[in-house]
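Morning run. Coffee first, then this:
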Amino acid sequence: MARHRDSGAEREPDEAVSLDPLNRYKPLGKPGPTTTLTEQLTFQLCRHVAAGLTLRDAAALVGTTDTVVQGWRARGTEAIERGETNLYTAFVMEYEAAGAHFRRTLHEAQLENIGNRNFNDKWLRWRLGLSDPKNFTLPRTTGAAGGDGSAPELVSPEEAQKALAERMARFLSSEDKRKVLLTPMVEE
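And here it is:
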C-alpha cells in the first residue's frame, strides 16, 4: 500500500539521538558474584526484571550472575513444591510477578496502539516471545508437502511408482493432444 505524502516518512529527524554508554556506569568493585540471597537483593533484582532487563543484565547490575539466580529460583521452586515458605519461595514469587508486570506493560502498549499505523509492534512481539516463549511464540513448522507445515506423506515404493506412472500417462496424453491442436490442417 502506498504511503501518503504527508506521512512524514520522507522527513529527516529533527536531531540525532546520541548514546553515551558510560553516562551512568559505576564499577561494582567486587571480587566475585554475590551468592547469598537477601531480601534487599530480591527487590533490586526484581525491579530490574520488571523494568524489562533480561535476567543476565539484571543479575549483573545487582552483583551476581544469571546462573546463581537460576539456582535461587530452582531452590525456591523445590521449596514451593514441598509446601515450605522461606526467602527462596518469596524470591520465586517476586521474580515471577516482576516478569508478569513487564509482559503486561508490553501487552497493554500493544493493545493501546492497535489502530495506530505509526506504531510498529514487532519489537514488542519479539520481546514477549523472549520473556515467555511458551505463551507468546508459535511453534516452528518445517518441511511441507502442503505448505502448511505438515510433514510430507510417507508412501511405499510401489505406491510412488504407480503415482509416477499415472502422472507420466497424463502428461503424455496432454502432449499428444497439444501436438494435434498445433499441427496445421491440410485441405484435400
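Residues 39-133 form one domain. Good start to the day.
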